Amino acid sequence: MPPLGSTPEDIDFSALCHSDTSNSDRPNQPSTSAQSNSNSSRGKNTPPSHSTGTADTVCKFYRKGLCRYGRSGDKCKYRHPNVCTKLMNHGPTSERGCKLGNQCRFLHPLLCESSVASLKCLDTDCKKKTHQRYQKAKT
């Protein structure tokens, strides 16, 4: 079985994405190709919040439910694909759950293990923001 949080990375999404050629000093804004070439390796010109990548790379913070641009990711230069509803509603092991793993065209976010095992998370300070069926203990 593929690990939780797997997503298809081999699909070419570059044809589906629109690039913005405006220059911006703000982090996570689409930049010109000259800027992206100068930031091709992680260094001091790379914003500390997101690693370098392209519009066809899934935002690592979105996968954890922590992207500052939210679910839509309108201003994030990384992809924010739709979440797999089968996985979120039924989990990865249930008969009705999603077992496609890397073959699924939707995002399989990193899930809290407690919410997968017992359908609720009892840890009020849980660092994993994505819970199956969105159940989290009340504070």
UniProtKB/TrEMBL annotation:
<feature type="compositionally biased region" description="Polar residues">
    <location>
        <begin position="42"/>
        <end position="55"/>
    </location>
</feature>
<feature type="compositionally biased region" description="Low complexity">
    <location>
        <begin position="27"/>
        <end position="41"/>
    </location>
</feature>
<dbReference type="InterPro" id="IPR000571">
    <property type="entry name" value="Znf_CCCH"/>
</dbReference>
<keyword id="KW-0863">Zinc-finger</keyword>
<feature type="zinc finger region" description="C3H1-type">
    <location>
        <begin position="53"/>
        <end position="83"/>
    </location>
</feature>
<keyword id="KW-0862">Zinc</keyword>
<protein>
    <recommendedName>
        <fullName>C3H1-type domain-containing protein</fullName>
    </recommendedName>
</protein>
<feature type="region of interest" description="Disordered">
    <location>
        <begin position="1"/>
        <end position="55"/>
    </location>
</feature>
<feature type="domain" description="C3H1-type">
    <location>
        <begin position="53"/>
        <end position="83"/>
    </location>
</feature>
<dbReference type="GO" id="GO:0008270">
    <property type="term" value="F:zinc ion binding"/>
</dbReference>
<keyword id="KW-0479">Metal-binding</keyword>
